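User: Hey, quick favor. My workstation is busy. Could you predict this chain's structure for me?
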Amino acid sequence: MNLRTLLLGVSSAALLAGFAHAETLTIATVNNGDMVRMQGLTEDFTTKNPDIQLEWVTLEENVLRERVTTDVATKGGQYDIMTIGTYEVPIWAKQGWLVPLDNLGADYDVDDLLPAIRSGLTGEDGKLYAAPFYGESSMVMYRKDLMEKAGLTMPDAPTWEFIGEAARKMTDRAAGINGICLRGKAGWGENMAFLTATSNAFGARWFDEKWTPQFDQPEWKNTLDMYVKLMNDAGPQGASSNGFNENLALFQQGNCGMWIDATVAASFVSNPKESTVADKVGYALAPDTGLGKRGNWLWAWNLAIPAGSQKTASAEKFIAWATGKDYTKLVAEKEGWANVPPGTRSSLYANAEYEKAAPFAKMTLDSINAADPKNPAVKPVPYVGVQFVAIPEFQGLGTTVGQLFSAALAGQMSVDDALAQAQQVTTREMTRAGYIK
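Assistant: No problem, here it is.
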């Protein structure tokens, strides 16, 4: 055997050995634009880490929540990395279902994470249990041309009264334009995220200080009445089936005058490659009613490691890559600064290139900073959370109530009946769970 053949044999054997020892990380993630973009850029990670392979399970938001909740609760080990929200992190960390992220690397700079976002991902022991891929609040995105045509000027801090007037004036269904697009799809993280945040502005709350449900109070009736009437007058057909992705598509196609939703959507509606109205979009804070609270939420999609995973070291490497500063630079290089994941790091909002490329940057940061999860409502509450209630029971309760409110929007039941049933089912569950004595 000559030297060349010997070396080729050694190289082949080493290569095969490398593949044999490569770990495969199974990553469960949500099917939104930023996560899909990340999947398209992961060659950067696998090139730097040839001993780690990636397998993606990409799911619709409600399905993702159901599957990862089942897996993490049973320590099933089906996934090595999960995309989970701000709601789950403190609850799951307390249950011992998540691995603390202690080894993200010396250059990760955890102190650069926005305090409002980081605090929601930190356990009672002070450790970080998930790393934010992107953070968001909610705000108004609107068509400046249609607002001008309606003879109106959008204030930076609008009221719901103004939003209602503008939506009705902007509606031109013959031309395929709905004055407003809002979430109607049932789900605690879909329509109930929007409606719970909105209800805060109307003085409503899920529970009083004794955990008694409040759906029988006038503030909730005012919230739901406004929403259903507004959507009937100025919303799209079939709105009870529309969640974030459906409304994003409608807005990008020019079918919405206004859309109140996640700040993260701004990079998509203002991207000329994806949006037919990219050069016509303006931004404003989520509306209020003059009671001191705006209807804007606080959320982050985060990457976390379930306790059932046997591949913690590799999983932390990937999370450090996907949520670190270098990933931001990679997206900026490939897709432009306007498309980097927003709402997680102070350094991004101090970056002049980002400020120049993203006209929505200041409104996004202002909206995130305006949210107060520890004091979300006008009246005192016993819970933490702006668009959710940070108790384990909320996932089921929020979805059940969301189904009732979606049915009211679809005209399948009255607002009064939806609220009465919400009060009944929530009272029953809270009593059974021991909150109500």
